[in-house]
Design goal:
The protein is α+β, with helices and mostly antiparallel strands. The chain contains six helices and 28 strands. Strands 3, 4, 8, 9 and 10 form a five-stranded antiparallel sheet that branches. Strands 1-2-7 form a three-stranded antiparallel sheet, with no helix packed on it. The longest helix is centred in the N-terminal third of the chain and has 29 residues, at 13-41. The radius of gyration is 64 Å and the shape is elongated.
Length: 431
């Protein structure tokens, strides 16, 4: 098998010459066609007239658009008169070279509001061919507002009975307009957001023996857009504010020899919302209103010139709720009932010692007080007797009755009426 080149070598010389001439003719024809096409496309033309769309015009800017048949630069001459005066070119920012395109768009800014501008466009192809349009005009808008501006939030979910709402705020109050506020509510078709359940009453009733209740629940409307869990079917009895305890009786019984009681306590219901604080398991015997004292007998016996008696006292039970006041450890011997006129001696009653476990004062060498109280002793300047209008001759007895009733106590009299009768008899009806 022969290739074309091998086949041509087999032809006679004249035939080979003819073939070469034919090939050269075909090549020249093709080259001429390409040159003709290129020559034709080197002619630049505006195939879409320049326009300024109304939607691109504002009070300070506008956009000019046009289209050419070949890629070329974009240039706009414009001005407020037919003489134009300003020129804008589209430049590639990174390369600082003019943009080459077919669909041209030029943004003109800043412009004056409410002003008519004259403009024309020009384009230059890469081969230097140029084209330009005729002069046209456009007018910028006025910046005077024509309506208020409201900004509204999103509509809420549709709720029963088929209404949804939103909030609208005035963001630009145009002084020359009174634009109505947009609607803030509208009708809608509710969309369920939860299932609906029906439950029986809680049972059984709460009591000291029952602290839990139960109930049954069933779904009555199954919303396809939600999966609402069932309500609770058991609960602790409300309210549960404290634990419940069971305690034994206090023991042993209170007596003069026993002043403390104890008991045992155990929890019978543990409330989960409170701390488990046990009731008290020990206490002082109630009531505790006074201390208990033990005193010796009064010494020495009255008479034979002894004006006073003494004793010792000590506390047997210290009640924490009272003051520890010692019983009197000194008392005057009761005066005789006869009255002695003239030459009465004025003395003051000495203070009583009220100190717990106070030792009994002992007369020195058994000698009587320096100022012994005798039946003829008158007390004329005691403030208490003077305030209560007590006669001087019965002031001492009145003071003894008021500050301990020692006279009645020594006589074995414990009632108030008995003591009064005793003192009246002892003082010849004076009290």
């Amino acid at each position: 098998m022969h290739t074309p080149s091998q086949f041509s070598l087999l032809l006679p010389k004249k035939q080979r010459t003819r073939i070469y001439l034919f090939a050269a003719t075909v090549f020249l024809a093709i080259a001429s066609t390409v040159i003709t096409v290129r020559a034709q496309t080197s002619v630049i033309a505006i195939i879409t007239d320049p326009t300024v769309p109304e939607t691109t015009i504002t009070d300070t800017s506008a956009v000019v658009r046009w289209q050419t048949n070949v890629e070329s630069t974009s240039l706009v001459d414009f001005g407020t008169t037919a003489g134009l005066g300003q020129e804008y070119r589209k430049i590639e920012p990174m390369e600082q070279s003019e943009v080459i395109e077919i669909n041209h768009s030029m943004y003109l800014s800043p412009l004056k509001e409410n002003t008519t501008y004259y403009y024309k466009v020009r384009s230059v192809a890469s081969n230097g061919a140029r084209v330009e349009s005729s002069v046209s005009t456009f007018t910028t808008k006025s910046n005077a507002c024509t309506e208020d501006t409201w900004t509204c939030g999103k509509w809420s979910l549709c709720a029963d009975p088929g209404t949804q709402t939103r909030v609208c705020k005035l963001t630009n109050d145009c002084p020359t307009a009174n634009t109505p506020k947009p609607p803030e509510s509208q009708s809608c078709t509710p969309v369920c957001i939860k299932d609906e359940w029906s439950c029986s009453d809680w049972a059984p009733a709460c009591s000291d023996d029952n602290h839990t209740q139960i109930r049954s629940c069933q779904i009555v409307f199954d919303c396809p857009n939600a999966k609402t869990p069932s309500p609770p079917t058991n609960q602790l009895c409300p309210p549960c504010a404290k634990d419940e305890w069971s305690c034994s009786d206090w023991a042993p019984a209170c007596s003069d020899d026993n002043h403390t009681q104890i008991r045992s306590c155990q929890i019978v219901f543990d409330c989960p919302y409170t701390k488990n604080i046990s009731p008290p398991t020990s206490q002082l015997c109630p009531p505790c209103a006074k201390d208990e004292w033990s005193c010796s007998d009064w010494q020495p016996e009255c008479g034979d010139g002894n004006p006073a008696q003494y004793r010792t006292c000590r506390v047997e039970f210290d009640c924490p709720f009272t003051k520890n006041i010692s019983p009197p450890t000194k008392q005057s011997c009761p005066p005789r009932g006869d009255q002695i006129g003239g030459g009465q001696k004025e003395v003051r009653v000495p203070d009583r010692p009220f100190v717990k476990d106070a030792p009994s004062p002992t007369p020195p060498n058994g000698a009587p007080d320096k100022e012994p109280r005798t039946p003829d002793t008158l007390i004329t300047d005691n403030p208490e007797c003077l305030t209560n209008n007590v006669a001087p001759q019965r002031c001492l007895v009145w003071l003894e009755a008021k500050h301990g009733n020692t006279t009645c106590a020594n006589a074995g009299i414990t009632t108030k009426e008995g003591c009064k009768k005793f003192l009246l008899e002892k003082n010849n009806g004076v009290f």
